[in-house]
Specification:
2 domains; 10 helices; 11% strand; 7 strands; Alpha/beta knot; single chain; 259 residues; elongated; alpha/beta
Length: 259
């Protein structure tokens, strides 16, 4: 299923759970929580974290109370995924062991479909910062995601890994239909007459500041017209540039009349 057709897939918040296995640094938990909040995922499970302080995490990841209020703690990874209908591991290391490997973008639509199918949640499992998930940990997983990176620097920060995987899920779901920011004011494309008036005004302004000198004015203006046409100016933009060129001439006239 492509990302275009997956845009109608909702993000089943309660059917996706992030599992952090033996995290060493509280700051990384906070970064992971912030990533989850950004990407619409609210369930977090921690397996034997070295350090945990909800107050400090909330101070780093502002607004993360919806996640922190329902954090679950487990003694083993096996216990943390026991009720999962599908377990997704993550690894930066290319291993000789045979696993079902995928990139997050390719796996995201299928993971969302599995999460929305009912039954237990889909678990996204991330390993400890210094060595990730072991082969034994990955043996508990139904598939393993790896993020394509520069092979010379393949290891990601834990929070970065959580963000990237959760982002692909969001993008394959509701994020695909998210509208891009638009200008507060819109205008129709500049008409041919508006563009011709702009070019004429620019040519007069350039002549007024003696820009052409020994250059070929016709060749220069052809380049100016090509640049402006590639930009596909709207009516407001063409009018603004024309006014700027017009003001250059006005300024020179005012300058010439000064004592």
């Amino acid at each position: 299923m492509s990302i275009d057709t997956a845009s109608t897939i909702p993000l089943p918040q309660d059917d996706i759970v992030v599992v952090l296995n033996e995290t060493q640094d509280l700051v990384n938990i906070a970064g992971a929580v912030r990533a989850m909040m950004n990407m619409g995922i609210r369930r977090l499970r921690l397996v034997r974290p070295v350090e945990y302080d909800a107050y400090r995490i909330a101070g780093i990841a502002h607004g993360s109370e919806p996640v922190l209020e329902r954090v679950e703690f487990f003694d083993t990874l096996r216990d943390a995924i026991a009720d999962a209908s599908h377990v997704v591991g993550t690894s930066a290391r290319r291993r000789t062991a045979t696993f079902v490997w995928q990139h997050p973008r390719d796996a995201a639509p299928d993971i969302l479909a599995l999460a929305g199918a009912g039954g237990g949640p889909v678990a996204l499992v991330f390993g400890r910062e210094d060595k990730g998930l072991s082969n034994e940990d990955l043996d508990l997983c139904d598939r393993v995601l790896t993020v394509p990176t520069d092979p010379r620097h393949s290891s990601l920060n834990l929070a970065q890994a959580v963000l990237l995987v959760c982002y692909e899920l969001w993008l394959a779901g509701p994020g695909a239909a998210a509208a891009l920011p638009r200008a507060r004011k819109s205008a129709p494309p500049a008409a041919a007459e508006e563009m011709l008036s702009l070019f004429e005004q620019v040519e007069r302004a350039l002549a007024a500041i003696d820009f052409f000198k020994t250059r070929n004015p016709d060749a220069i203006m052809r380049t100016v017209r090509a640049i402006a046409r590639r930009a596909r100016l709207d009516s407001r933009e063409a009018g603004l540039l024309r006014a700027m060129a017009f003001e250059v001439q006005n300024y020179l006239k005012r300058l010439a009349t000064r004592p």
